[in-house]
Amino acid sequence: MTVKALYDYDYPSADRVELFGDDELVYVHWRGNLLFSSAGCFRAPKAMTFGEFRSAIVDAWAESDPEYDSASVHDWQLFDEPLEADPGRTLADLGIGHKALLSFAT
């Protein structure tokens, strides 16, 4: 539903890209998991490799579900497009930008 302000709304977003310097916000969603029904949001350096991002951020987050098995993760997607999740490439190299949505299945 569209909302119409009764006045000029001119407040800059508190999570705009220029406030994060060399970091960015990345949303991660574990598709089909009932414990994590929505995406988590994480701050990560753009220069971080996908392998580091996965082990330091995604695995650490997902391991709070006792059924999580890192070896069973597959089908990475960036927004709704398949992603070749090369662990040696940086988030920026993979096209993962500020406020991007990554998702995976197990």
Structure description:
With 106 residues, the protein is of the alpha+beta class. It has one domain: Phenol hydroxylase (Ubiquitin-like (UB roll), Roll), CATH 3.10.20. It has 1 helix and 5 strands. The longest helix is centred in the middle third of the chain and has 13 residues.
Task: Give a brief description.
The chain is an alpha+beta fold. Helices cover 12% and strands 25% of the residues.
* Biggest sheet, spatial arrangement of strands: 2-1-5-3-4
| CATH architecture annotation | Roll
Let me know the average pLDDT: 95
User: In angstroms, what separates the terminal alpha carbons?
Assistant: 34 Å
Tell me about the largest β-sheet: 5 strands, mixed
Principal-axes geometry comes out as: globular
The level of helicity is 10-25%
From the alpha-carbon coordinates, what is the Rg to the nearest angstrom?
16 Å
The CATH class, by name, is Alpha Beta
**Residue fraction in strands:** 25-35%
Q: What is the β-strand count?
A: 5
What is the N-to-C order of secondary-structure elements (H for helix, E for strand)? EEHEEE
Tally of individual helices = 1
The secondary-structure class comes to: alpha+beta
Assembly state here?
single chain
CATH superfamily, by name, is Phenol hydroxylase
CATH topology: the name is Ubiquitin-like (UB roll)
